[in-house]
Amino acid sequence: MLVALVLFSPLATQPISAADSAWSDLPMPQSVGTVVDMAVSPYQTSLVYLLAFNNGHKVWRTFNDGSAWQLIYQTGSAGLSSIDRFTLARNGTLLIAGGSANGPACLKSIDQGQTFTQFTLPVAIDSTAGFGALSEQSFFFTSFDGSRSRVWRTADGSAFESTIISATPLTILELSPGFAADNNLIAAGADGNFYLSTDGGSHFSALQQSPLVGEVCLAFSADYSASKYIYAASTSVGSGIWRMKVGEPAWTRIDAGLPNGTMLSDIEVSVGGIIYAASSNQVNASNGGLVKKTVFNSSWETARDGLQTGTTLWGLQSRGSKLYSLDTANNRIVVYNDTLASPVELLSPQSGSPGIGTFAAGTIGGIDIVWRNPGGATGFQWQVSDSYDMSIIRFESTTATESARLKNLDPGTTYYWRVRAVTPSLSPWSAVWSFTTALGAPVLTTPAIGSTVQILQPPFQWQPSTGAKSYELMLSTSADFSNLTAFATGIGGNAWQPTSPLIPSTGYFWKVRAIGTNTYSPWSAVSAFTTSAPPTTSAAPTKTVLPTTTPVPTQTTTATAPPLSTSAQTPAPTQSIAPPITTPSVPGLLIGILIGMGCLSGFMVSMIIKTRKQRRD
């Protein structure tokens, strides 16, 4: 929709920044003349087209939100002699409609205004016509010949067809967000009638007439393909903002709470479902500016900060969190960066973090949740739950900072958290992140610190930790555990025993930690013990070699230490551990006697044989 603006000199301003949450004015080209219309690319950051009039129509382009402008087209003897409308297609093609020496014509540029191609239109697209485009080949516009209104369409950019709609002018034409898939578009007129096509403009059916009259504006919900919601408003005083679900018979008024006498020049609905409407009332302390309503707030909010008194907003186009409007009172484009339209960004702890926090007095504390201020937020609300759907809130509060410290949490428990801005306006809730609190560190009991153990496969024992599913144990001969003797994992109880003997007369260090579901405890305090010296044994007697003729038996004695008892040194573990079984040795004296008896028997047999032989001789 076009409107002539009062000419003022360009104002010296700075480009807006991403952190601004108030209105700023876009720097204008020098000698811009009267600003007529704008086209904001929803897909390319900071790309804006401007239509102005100064000794003819001119089209300007900026790639950096007004820091620098380039003149890309102006009317003259060749090409278009006047410009009535321009728009951006969904694919970024720039379409400029106007008059030429040969009648109604249109320019198209697929390279952001570097080059243009001109083609003829069947009828003029005047300044009040609806104009929408999918691409340089597929676009739509309305016309009125004094008695009938039509919607024109083309699928190839050259052949046009039309459908007669009504007997009144149609000033609005909008394509649905998913037009490429659903072929839905709506045309509307100043009499409050809306017409829906579900086949790409070949046929239209009338929707329930709205209460709106005058210059009507229309917006689809971002999720129209699922919700079927459309929104409408008009410049008529106090006409309000209305919503309809396509397929249902009634419009619903949703602007309760707006100032009396509010006039609305345009409406937009964000991807997040936020409804924005530009007020054409002059800005003062209680009226004008931008009104917005989020899906999670029952009341309307007003954004006037940064607008001069007397500012009048006309039209509204969005790109991400930024909204652009024409300030008809000051001949400029103004921009509102609604940084709170997007969810707050969470920073730490990272979602899914295991085993965090400090265990003390049976609870976990010392966990800081941290998020990023999107810019402009002065207050936040945070919530913590032990249910993934946040249905039961365990802890919550508000803060002016970007962090909060948690305490009194349960050990070994998974918690979920989220944050939103609450001042100066509500933002959507952030994504839900999770973390799992740590377990309490085990307390080591056996072997006692500083003790000397009398067996080389001693049982190890510790106090159990609440919430533990298993334990891990490290055993080393070095205090820094750089040289591991054993690293046991998956220990099912609170006791463990090595599978092979330890080294005698050696100092050992050990520690344990608890393992839970997606969590663990800190390592316990390190304990140390020493293994006892090996038992002493008697030396074997010297063997005496006798002449073979008269063998003399040799007796060997082996001293064997009895098995050591562990009952006095090591308390019984809560997990049953069998002590190592030592098989008693046969006493050395008995062995010597048996050997001697064997030798004596052999000697006696030899003497008997010798005596009998002597008798025969």
Automatic annotation (TrEMBL):
Bilayer-crossing regions: 589-609
Keyword Membrane: yes
Chain positions covered by the region annotation Disordered: 532-580
Low complexity compositional bias, start-end: 532-574
Record CDD domains: FN3 (cd00063)
Signal peptide: 1-18
Keywords per UniProt: Membrane, Signal, Transmembrane, Transmembrane helix
Superkingdom of the source species: Bacteria
InterPro entries, A to Z: FN3_dom, FN3_sf, Ig-like_fold, PAPs_N, WD40/YVTN_repeat-like_dom_sf
Fibronectin type-III domain ranges (all copies): 353-440
SUPFAM superfamilies: Fibronectin type III (SSF49265), Oligoxyloglucan reducing end-specific cellobiohydrolase (SSF110296), YWTD domain (SSF63825)
Name the record gives this protein: Fibronectin type-III domain-containing protein
Organism: Dehalogenimonas etheniformans
